[in-house]
Amino acid sequence: MRFETHSPEETEALGQRLAEQLKPGDVVAYFGDLGAGKTAFTRGLARGLDVREPVTSPTYTIVNEYLSGSMPLFHFDMYRLGSAEEVFDIGWEDYLSRGGVCAVEWSENVADAVEDAVRVSIRRTGDRDREIIIEGEGSHADLSL
User: Fold this and answer.
1) CA atoms within 13 Å, Cβ hemisphere of 71
2) How far is CA 76 from CA 56, 89, 145, in A?
3) What is the DSSP string of 29-53?
4) Phi-psi bin for 63: left (phi > 0), alpha (psi -120 to 50), beta?
5) pTM, two decimal places
6) Judging by beta carbons within 10 Å of its beta carbon (0-12, 13-18, 19+), is residue 19 exposed, middle or buried?
7) Residue 87 — left, alpha, or beta (φ > 0 → left; ψ -120 to 50 → alpha)?
8) In order of start, what are the domains of the chain with their CATH numbers?
9) CB 96 within 8 A of CB 90
10) Fewer CB within 10 Å, N or C, the chain?
11) pLDDT in tens, 88-143
């Protein structure tokens, strides 16, 4: 499904709608350049999962855990990882088994680990405008803004 958003708030709202369709163990794999809106989308996922703490980019920590919601949200930044093998070294399988949602930025760096994920591609089309394509399991849901 293809969507256009015209502000960070609309991008977050789309993330929130997707979160309402997710199940424990689901993986959301992001694809998009720096500044495309991946963290904004994740803030929306968090809101849809009733996460109460502020969501920030896990750039320097690799993963931020948000445990206050209806199910855990694990927000990964794979920018510094070079292969799927490295993601397994940081306990990827443990995160998958914890009954939460894994949101993975820079998924192209660990493609083998996110093969069955919901794919969210975000592309800037203007200063605040984004084209967002959601594919895979869960993408059949009614996500209209």
Assistant:
1) 19
2) 11, 14, 26
3) EEE--TTSSHHHHHHHHHHHTT--S
4) beta
5) 0.89
6) buried
7) alpha
8) 2-135 (3.40.50.300)
9) no
10) C
11) 888 888 988 999 999 999 888 787 788 889 999 999 998 899 999 999 865 445 55
